[in-house]
Amino acid sequence: MNTAIRRPAAALLAGIAGGVILTGCTGGSHGDAVPEDYTAWMSQTSAQMNVAGDDEHGGAGGRLTVENGDEKAGASVSLEYDLAGPYDVLAVCRSSKKVHLTVSDYTAATAGPGESLESMSVLGQADITCGVTSRIPIDVPKGRAGITLDASTTDRSGQTLFDAFVVTRGAGQ
User: Fold this and answer.
1) How far is CA 99 from CA 23, 55, 163, in A?
2) What pLDDT does residue 57 have?
3) pTM as predicted
4) So what's the pLDDT on residue 56?
5) Which residues are bridge partners to 59 per DSSP?
6) In angstroms, rounded to a whole number, what is the distance separating the alpha carbons of residues 173 and 158?
7) Fold entry, domain 2-168
């Protein structure tokens, strides 16, 4: 799978991902409609996980939406930073029954005025039961430009949220 993201878009995604601490949330009703400010839910999940400092390595999340007549709602975020080694991705969702999360690594190459990102391999994946934190172990090879988080659900309502947080292997247990 080849995915092209221009540098400004990749930098924006990395900036958003790095600025939001993401983790799991077991409190509250996961069947509720999308809150007006869903970043409040993401902040709540972060506080409940209580993973920070050297164990935190960024993350991302958001609302799963349907585009161009897709059969599933989805969201995809690329985190652009060097992560070689063993990590866990802590993931949670709400307002649906399940979300499938796939974590892949990628390389970046200069392509004209921006960068092209090329997916290399799937590092881990899981079906996340909403309202329950899932831990996905990943081993990121050296020489990768970053990782991509691809979330999808068969729930096409546009209400589903997901949150994922990259941590040192075993952190927060």
Assistant:
1) 15, 25, 10
2) 86
3) 0.73
4) 82
5) 165
6) 32
7) Jelly Rolls (2.60.120)
CA distances from 145 to 52, 71, 83, 104, 111 (A): 23, 30, 8, 11, 15
Strands (E), the chain: 2-3, 56-63, 73-79, 85-94, 98-111, 114-129, 134-140, 146-153, 161-168
**CA atoms within 13 A of residue 59's CA, in its CB half-sphere:** 29
Q: What is the dihedral of CA 13, 101, 66, 25, to 10 degrees?
A: -80
Q: How, if at all, do strands 114-129 and 98-111 pair? A: antiparallel
The full set of domain ranges for the chain reads 2-168
Side-chain-side CA neighbours of 159 within 13 Å: the count stands at 15
Per residue in 40-52, pLDDT (tens digit) is 887 787 777 666 6
**Residue 94 and residue 151 in contact, taking contact as beta carbons nearer than 8 Å:** no
Please choose, from the candidates 67, 27, 30, 62, the residue with its C-alpha nearest in 3D space to the C-alpha of residue 47.
Answer: 27
The two most distant CA atoms of the chain are separated, in Å, by: 47
